[in-house]
């Protein structure tokens, strides 16, 4: 029988490892790493901690500065089972979904929603037949002249055939959350650096009346 402490903890399906990558500049990479960006990222990444439960996720997020305060170019990385390396080369059949959260309160509410549905596996249940294809989350400040607190959340998928379904699910979750249509946008993209515009699709943002969001964990 589980103890009261264990029963009060909502375990995630898989463990996730969170790390922090400070800004890398071309001068730094060329001088210190002979132009090897992957090596620079590996050596500069600061490993933080494992996240195994819902409670640990929110405790970790509450202990960190707001994303827009981390500095331009700095990135928080959540990797399922600490899959190495957390770079696109590890996903030859993968793709990414880019979610730009333009301004408060969407920056907070949208980020919480994406963390919840991805790490809580609602996205897997609703968009990929229960298969956990969303393996990495990358969260970074992307301020602009119009939106000084803009952040970007990238969801990296190991299976690009599920990309559209996951992107559609995330767009629907944003609408169901009641987030303002002009406060975010979602786009799909491949990891093909040679053709950055290839297979890229922007999903229009719109709102729906329901204020609720998909549950983080399934009872």
UniProtKB/TrEMBL annotation:
Under which name does UniProt file this protein? Uncharacterized protein
Per the record, the GO terms for biological process are: translational initiation
Superkingdom, taxonomy of origin: Eukaryota
Coiled coil (UniProt feature): none
GO MF term set = RNA 7-methylguanosine cap binding; translation initiation factor activity
GO CC annotations, alphabetized: ciliary plasm; eukaryotic translation initiation factor 4F complex; nuclear lumen
Q: Which InterPro entries does the annotation name? A: TIF_eIF4e-like, TIF_eIF_4E
């Amino acid at each position: 029988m589980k103890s009261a402490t264990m029963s009060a903890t909502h375990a995630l399906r898989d463990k996730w490892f969170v790390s922090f990558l400070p800004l890398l500049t071309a001068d730094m990479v060329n001088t210190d790493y002979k132009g090897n960006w992957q090596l620079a990222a590996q050596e500069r990444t600061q490993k933080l901690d494992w996240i195994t439960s819902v409670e640990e996720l929110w405790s970790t997020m509450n202990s960190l500065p707001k994303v827009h305060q981390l500095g331009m170019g700095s990135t928080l990385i959540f990797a399922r089972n600490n899959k190495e390396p957390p770079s696109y080369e590890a996903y030859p059949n993968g793709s990414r979904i880019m979610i730009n959260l333009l301004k408060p309160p969407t920056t907070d509410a949208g980020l919480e929603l994406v963390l919840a549905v991805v790490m809580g596996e609602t996205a897997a249940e609703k968009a990929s037949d229960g298969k956990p294809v969303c393996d990495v989350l990358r969260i970074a400040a992307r301020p602009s002249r119009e939106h000084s607190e803009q952040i970007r959340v990238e969801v990296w998928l190991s299976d690009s055939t599920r990309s559209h379904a996951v992107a559609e699910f995330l767009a629907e979750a944003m609408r169901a959350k009641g987030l303002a249509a002009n406060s975010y946008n979602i786009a799909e993209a491949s990891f093909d650096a040679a053709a950055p515009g290839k297979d890229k699709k922007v999903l229009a943002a719109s709102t729906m009346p329901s204020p609720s969001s998909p549950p983080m964990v399934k009872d």
